[in-house]
Amino acid sequence: MTQPPLQRSSRLYKVTGSQGHRSTVLSSSQDFSAAFESEVGPDHGMSNAIVYCYNLPSERIVYTLVPDPRLVLDAPFVYQAQRRFATQLLTVPVELFERREQFENPAPVFVFSIGRCGSTLLSSLLRSAGRRSVSEPDVLTQLAVMPEPVRRHVGAGVVQAIIRGTVASLARQCDRNAFLKLRSACNALWADLLTAVPDARAVFVLRERRSWARSSHRAFGSSPQGLAATLHGAIQALDQMRRAGVRRELVWYDELASDPLSVLRRLGVEADGRGALDAAALRRTLDQDSQADTGISRDDVRARDSEERCLSAFEALWDRADSRDLVSANDLGKLML
Predict the structure, then answer these.
(1) Which residues are within 8 A (CB) of 147 and not within 5 positions of it... i.e. 6 or more apart?
(2) What's the CA gap between 209 and 231, in Å, rounded?
(3) CA distances from 243 to 76, 114, 173, 233, 255 (A)
(4) What angle do CA 26, 126, 291 make, to 5 degrees?
(5) Which residue spans within 102-261 are E strands per DSSP?
(6) How many CB atoms lie within 10 A of CB 142?
(7) Which residues pair with 54 in a beta bridge?
(8) CA-CA distances (angstroms) from residue 313 to 36, 152, 232, 306?
(9) Beta bridge partners of 32
(10) Axis-axis angle for helices 307-321, 224-243 (nearest 10)
(11) How many Å apart are CA 265 and CA 255, to the nearest integer?
(12) Distance between CA atoms of 201 and 185, rounded to whole angstroms?
């Protein structure tokens, strides 16, 4: 007689240390030092466990357990707050992930962007309007940057299961229609995301290319090649969405910073039945630093000696790529201003 497969258990660990919470590096189970506590049931910590990352060697989803989930889920970058406030880690076998995270028909708004373009500001504005927005759940970034040989090893089914489980978990903790703001690397993951979550909507945040490139170089020291690759990848993703018939709303930084009320109305925020937007509250949010205490706040970012050389080289790469046809086809003329 064939024996049933052995079911792996979930495991609980006590956090004994973590790396600096202001770091913007990609999340990993190596971000914490932890001591094993016990084996637990698959539904342990449903109220205060937040999905953190996927541990490939053990094929487990890693959660952080935190005293105040709302404080973490409303942070400028959720992965940073997880590092700061985690008291325990919960690891769940990936084959049990979707069984644990049950939520029928989530319909999130995936917020794609090129980074340094106002997407974190958009999250802050949504929260000030009483709407839920989760900024940069990093397990999705992991999937986006996964090398192709590793992705083949993991398998498309597991990738889709991780996306569905992550979105279901965030919907359960936040809202069926929560905004999920993603890192720029996730632009490459758009098809997987929208396939796994068919009721999702797509928003894409952009900025005039020169001011964006300057801000990115100041914040991250981005190279001309990296800037060009990020921008070209975003344009390609937008074009692929258009060709696939995906409706995506474009949000431009200058519009968001000057008239957030109109932008949020255009995104359908007032149509959710939760009342009208408060223009005064939105204006107060504009006066605050949406990335305070993240390591890339206004006080942290300074001009670099390499700035003008980088921008000049970036412009040369942009001209050489000649993306005018894609820019025109996707109504991205503001990139050229």
Answers:
(1) none
(2) 8
(3) 33, 20, 34, 15, 26
(4) 45
(5) 109-113, 133-135, 179-181, 201-206, 248-252
(6) 21
(7) 61
(8) 50, 35, 15, 11
(9) 18
(10) 40
(11) 12
(12) 18
At 192 the three-state DSSP class reads helix
Which residue is listed with tokens 């190279």? 223
- Token pair 């090649």 in the structure block, residue: 225
pLDDT, tens digit, 9 for 90 and up, residues 259-314? 999 999 999 999 999 999 999 999 999 999 999 999 999 999 999 999 999 999 99
- pTM (two decimals): 0.96
Tokens found for residue 243: 């060709």
Tens digits of residue pLDDT in 140-186: 999 999 999 999 999 999 999 999 999 999 999 999 999 999 999 99
Q: Are strands 133-135 and 179-181 parallel, antiparallel or unpaired?
A: parallel
Domain layout of the chain by residue ranges = 11-100, 106-336
Tokens at residue 29, please? 């189970």
Q: At 92, is the secondary structure helix, strand, or coil? A: strand
Q: Does domain 106-336 have CATH number 3.40.50.980?
A: no
190 φ, ψ (degrees, to nearest 5): -55, -40
Question: What is the Cα–Cα distance from 61 to 77, expressed in whole angstroms?
Answer: 19
- CB neighbours of 18 closer than 8 A, spacing ≥ 6? 31, 32, 33, 83, 84, 86
